[in-house]
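**User:** My hope is that you can spare some time for a protein that puzzles me. I have put the entry right below:
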Amino acid sequence: MIPYSLLDLSPIPEGGTAADALRNTVDLARAAEDLGYNRYWLAEHHNSTGIASAATAVVICHVANHTRKIRVGSGGIMLPNHSPLQVAEAFGTLATLFPGRIDLGLGRAPGTDQLTVRALRRNPAQAEHFPDDVIELMGFLGDGAPGQPVRAVPGQGTHVPVWMLGSSLFGAQLAAYLGLPYAFASHFAPDDLDEAVELYRHRFRPSQIVPNPMQKPRFMLAVNLFAAATDAEAHRLRSSMLLNFVNLRRGTPGPLPAPVDDLTAHASAQELAQAERALRVVAVGTPASVEAQLRRYIAAYRPDEIILTGHIHDPEARKRSFAIGAEVMGRINAAG
């Protein structure tokens, strides 16, 4: 069986507010729990008028407090923006409040622009120390050592599961070296997907720094999902995410655009081609179309888990899309 999870950036829809986005996130999380999703992850982005999950640990707490059993976590926390101790304390507190339900996915990118990095009071060169910071953070979440002068409280002894996130070969190598589960950002940066998965699986070794380490690699594949009753409606839903990507590349990011019938009226052929290339790991269409596409990804990459995402302007259409995704994954799992 392949567990299926959900990644939500808590998008702020055009014409809506951050409050709307956070209400939609809680509503979607409750639906995902009822639909059998394994995890509900939120991502850290800053200085974006289109994303409401900047204070990621706070939103994780809010979602966990409004659900019962689904795992909730980060996909991810951008570690160069924080000290390892602060992250350990935040996620140690979450794990204390919601035992057995919290995940910590870590990324190396800042999740924002360089001006905002400076506003966060972080040194852009901090990313160069990412491997050491990951090890330090895992140490704070571990059992600790006698006489250890600095401890995360809460945090120490919680053993919050750490996932390595990445869109390049660097993350794959680090995940393999540290013996961590690995999630590849194929939903927006798929160019290195094939090589990264092969490298991770080939170089994986059990962790030397956590108790009861994984004995084999665990790979999560991210797939964009836009499912509806008809192929035409599903592609129309997807137009919001394509336009959102075009706006980002233009340097004019903002709220998630409403869907349109004719993308060529809003973007050039070159812009749309760039968006299609970056967002090409996608399952879009009717339930039958989505199932066929997901089966192809599973056959090609043999993921241990799939995480579905999709920026859809209308929250009810978004819930229906993820409901179809759950139904499809149920059929795929039932068929073995």
